[in-house]
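Narrative summary of target 7.
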Amino acid sequence: MYRIIEARDVGFKIRQFTIEAPRIARKQRPGQFVIVRLRERGERIPLTIKSSDPSAGTVTLAVQAVGKTTSLLNCLEAGDCILDIVGPLGHPSAIKRYGTVAVVAGSVGTAMALPTAKALKDADNHVIFIEGARTREMVVFEDEIRAASSETYIMTDDGSYGESGLVTKKLKELLDSGRAINFVLAVGPVPMMRAVAQLTTPLGIQTVVSLNSIMVDGTGMCGGCRVLIGNQSKFACVDGPEFDAAEVNFDVLMQRNAMYRDKECASLKQFEADKAKELAQLRAELAAKEDELARLRAELADEEGRND
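Modeled conformation, tokenized:
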């Protein structure tokens, strides 16, 4: 059981959680993620590790409500618990001195890009951070972005904040102006990452994308997160999540991500029709689990006392 220390809204349908997870906090590196399960028979979902505090024993996760499980998670408050968190998972980002780097992130993808951007800046890179969102209310973590980068650009599809247009518009403007960009990291929706790759690959710019394919166990055993990289099957959970953008088959990735969309939509619709009941049931299940754990701890303590 993992207790939520703080929960707050940070954008439209985006919520930030600080959670007690000391072992994960000690091990986490930029680019890694966790898999969360809310209930015994619940869905397992991969979530970004936005940051960690080893001294406090906490990790911070950013969650966008897009399906039933993320919507239910975003109903939880400080004091509530999460049943299971497994991690940190995946390979950390490759941090070295590239020169000038561009970090391109879409909305909640900003959370995963932030620790890598900070580490790249700490490695003496000139970091250009381009965040994109559909509208102003979906722009997140702006102050942290500015602290983690040397230059910051905010792009909104509707022009309601920052500059109007897609993140690729700003990236192309920088490249067309003659800026030498040595490395690009793109994190966010698959169409955005594909568009970045289409822009940078012909120019020979080393570009890495963080893939958000469907995951179940996070160990490579289920095969759910299979991706096609350079005509070879890889697993995003154990081989990634970051891959060379020039080698990613984005068409296959998008097809696999859409496999369960109808079922996901039906599940979300059912949840929204009875949200209060679902939340009450989850809290009751977690309370029962806490009571069970307390009983087991008491039994263990009694047994140890008898052995002494």
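The longest helix spans residues 275-307.
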